[in-house]
Amino acid sequence: MKLLFLASLSPQTGNHTTAERIRSYIESAGHTCELRDPAEFQSPAEVTNLVSQNPPFEAALALHLFRAARLLLDIQVPFGVVFGGTDINEDVKVKQKRVVMEQVLLKARFAVAFTDKLKEEAEMYLMSQSSKIYVQPQGIQTHVTDNFSWTEFLRSSGVSTEHADELRVFLLVCGLRRVKDPLYLVKVFSEWHCENPLNVLIIIGPKIDPVFTVEVEAVVQRTAGVFLAQERSQQELHAAMKRCFAMVNSSISEGMSAAILEAMDLGVPVLARDITGNSAVVQHEFTGLLYSSPKEFVHQAQRLLSDHELRERVVRNGKLYVEEHHSLKQERETYQRLVDILH
């Protein structure tokens, strides 16, 4: 079967990584899967033309109910959708978008939610049939590059390497866009750094929103103890994660943060903002630590520094959680089974 898969392909983003992984599952089942970015198309009509070209596509898949799946509304072949997170958490609040997403769900053969909570929200806001939505957590696999230099990474990020081994580096992994709120902790972290200069915050991720990126760069430049690293390949990012003291998430909204799960898999403690998508995978004081204000972030970070038993517990349980609930084998089987529904 020849299948079209629409998903945002901005480099080094969670969406791109997820889409590539799902595509590999579909192709390993013997199908052809062409991955395209919704940004390439001006209207659903352009996608309809693409689908009917010769030889035609026989089915389609979209990652993100509004951004990608709305372009499939006019196609004459069956399609499925995968919720992104911001579609169910944010876009449903906008009436025009919600109407479109309801139409998409009505036509889709199936939908995939990463968590039970996302499924519940979709049913509540989009009046979707429960039987159509499958829950499949993201599969996680980490690879650390062999030739990674921690000192070079720090230096290139602007961090003094004089006391490199004593530094407590908190790594905030996110694409630079407003929904990820990378500036949420900047002021309070800087104050904390001034009290103890060994605590530093490094923000790393692709520059997705150019206007917002300029704002982040300007704030970081004038803020002590906070640094902005150039984005890296996934293997280099995993190597940096493995060396940091803790991985930080400060998003306003998440579907399921792959970076959080990757940190857990690498044996790194997670400090995540207490929002729906994060609390679905981070159980406070068990698989990680949650905070709901900048002040509380510092409190939880200090606990992580002083309580070694707590640190060891969240690291151990986080790794076990990923092994039990985010297996690639399970994810592969689910998507291969769902694609058969599109036949």
- In helices, the fraction of residues equals 40-55%
Task: Report the structural category.
Answer: alpha/beta
The CA-CA distance between the termini, in Å, is 8 Å
Uncertain residue segments:
none
What distinguishing features does this structure have?
343 residues; alpha/beta; six-stranded parallel β-sheet; 12 strands; 43% helix
Describe the structure.
The protein has 343 residues and is of the alpha/beta class. It is 43% helix and 15% strand. The protein is built from 14 helices and twelve strands. The strands form two sheets. It has a six-stranded parallel sheet with strand order 2-1-3-4-5-6, with helices on both faces. It has a six-stranded parallel sheet with strand order 9-8-7-10-11-12, with helices on both faces. Helix 7 (186-195) links the parallel strand 7 (168-173) and strand 8. Helix 10 crosses helix 13 (308-325). The longest helix has 18 residues, at 308-325. The chain is elongated and about 60 Å long. The chain starts with a strand and ends with a helix.
